[in-house]
Amino acid sequence: MAAKWRERGDCFSMRSKVTVLLTKWRHYICIEKLKVMKKFVSLLVCVTVLVACGEVASPVKPEAVVVHRDLDSEVIKTVAKMSVGGMMCAEGCGGKIQQDLRALPGVIGTELDFTEGSSENIVKVEYDPAVTDEKKLIECVHGIADGKYSISKVEVLHYHGLHNKASNGGAAV
User: How far apart (Å, rounded) are the C-alpha atoms in residues 120 and 130?
Assistant: First the structure.
């Protein structure tokens, strides 16, 4: 009986069926491994992007404290002294902040008072209050580098010319 079985080639066909099944199983395992690898790589890319961007900026910025002061001066002008956090250097960070502020309509000029290692630095912005205001200046800084920079305090200095005081009966000194 064994001889008849071998003669018909059943042994060979059984072996080939097993080989085909093993090959299909290996192929299935490879596909499943590739799917898992694809998910892992996608996750790795997402984590890398988040880590490479540094700290994730909070979507809600705390409100900056805005203080207005009237001062006597020989010139008439308005200057906002903004306490800006998040700057690492005067050239890159400070330069970008000044450049974007100067691009706003109504901004006359900017000045940076940068101290290495300080958590906050001062950016002074002279502007025309008839064209822009401190809220637009704050929005501009918050919009730079996906909200990297924060503003804790803005002191708006309104310089009034001495000639106004003299014409109103006050003594000009």
Answer: 28
